[in-house]
Specification:
Helices cover about 60% and strands about 0% of the residues. It has helices at about 10-15, 20, 25-35, 35-45, 50-60, 65-70, 80-85, 95-105, 110-115, 120-130, 135-155, 160-165. The model is unreliable at about 1-5, about 10-20, about 160-165 and about 170-175 (pLDDT under 50).
């Protein structure tokens, strides 16, 4: 039964198939939505793999934080695209991009690990329990959290940790350190 859509998909979802969005040139859309980046994100997030790669290739030098986050939010973002964004001299300067690169499963392991040490404590805690991360990245996050917790306490003592309480963890104990 060719032509029939998969069950459970709305007409709107079928209308926004990536293959149909891929035929639209990106630059005119960018000019229209330039003052409303949240709308631009929706367009970039719908691009199919080939147009997404073409967009990154053509715009990497002038790509802004919003564009990079939209590319990283696209389900078609590949390891190569993550690597290009991570290797950029400008884009990883934005905290939100470093965080998204650590979270993204397609980011090459070496580049994801490089950004772990630059994450805020609250993000380390959140990511330490995420099942979406690869085990090596989650392990690096745990190790980074344990190092920071030990530095905040001034030693590696076991027991209650007042510094952890100040850092926002529950019950005065750090979830990243085995007390």
């Amino acid at each position: 039964e060719m032509g029939r859509s998969p069950p459970g998909r709305s007409a709107e979802a079928r209308a926004l198939e990536a293959s149909e969005v891929a035929a639209v040139p990106y630059e005119p859309i960018r000019q229209v939505y330039e003052k409303r980046p949240e709308l631009l994100w929706h367009v970039v997030r719908l691009l199919a793999p080939a147009p997404l790669a073409q967009f990154v290739e053509q715009n990497l030098a002038r790509m802004g934080e919003d564009d990079a986050l939209a590319v990283l939010g696209n389900r078609n973002c590949t390891q190569l695209l993550c690597s290009e964004i991570a290797s950029s001299s400008r884009l990883p300067l934005h905290y939100s991009i470093r965080l998204r690169l650590v979270e993204h499963r397609s980011t090459p392991l070496g580049q994801a690990l490089k950004f772990v040490n630059h994450l805020y404590w609250s993000d380390l805690l959140r990511l330490s329990i995420s099942m979406q991360l690869s085990p090596p990245v989650r392990g690096a996050i745990d190790a980074c959290g344990r190092r920071r917790c030990g530095k905040a306490r001034g030693s590696n003592q076991k027991g209650d940790c007042a510094a952890d309480a100040r850092l926002g963890t529950s019950h005065g104990k750090c979830p990243l350190v085995r007390h």
